[in-house]
Design a protein that fits this description.
This protein is α+β, with helices and mostly antiparallel strands and about 120 residues long. The chain has one domain (about 5-115). Helices cover about 30% and strands about 20% of the residues. The protein contains two helices and four strands; from the N terminus they run ααββββ. The protein has a four-stranded antiparallel sheet with strand order 1-2-3-4. The N and C termini lie far apart (about 35 Å). The relative contact order is 0.24. Residues about 5-20 have low confidence and may be disordered.
């Protein structure tokens, strides 16, 4: 009998996480084909970037992400912690584009991970 309540709790938590990530994914899908700088202008700069695959694609990571957040007066994201990480995979306009030049990177896809994804 103890297994059934535990299974229901696990299913409920997993369902919420999937719905939230899906909703964030729908919001962020609008940025596919746009510049990474468009996301940075709305949500702030990425926390980091890393090469994910060998075809020149770069992934920009944004920690503490919320699709409904607004930037503070100084352009900084809210200070409260949020358990949502956003990955934005992008290709450069020019093969030598540095990660810091966000206007030179075009969004290919986005993914979000975490229980607080909107």
């Amino acid at each position: 009998m103890r297994v059934l309540p535990l299974a229901l709790i696990v299913a409920a938590v997993a369902g919420c996480s999937t719905v939230n990530s899906s909703r964030t994914g729908q919001i962020m899908h609008a940025y596919v084909g746009q510049r990474v700088s468009e996301i940075a202008a709305r949500y702030g700069p990425p926390s980091s970037s890393f090469q994910q695959i060998d075809n020149g694609e770069l992934t920009f990571q944004r920690d503490n992400f919320r699709a409904d957040q607004t930037l503070g007066a100084a352009g900084a994201p809210p200070l409260y912690p949020v358990n949502c990480r956003l990955w934005v995979s992008a290709m450069p306009d020019d093969a030598g584009s540095p990660p810091q030049a966000l206007t030179l990177w075009v969004v290919q896809s986005t993914q979000s991970f975490g229980s607080d994804c909107y």
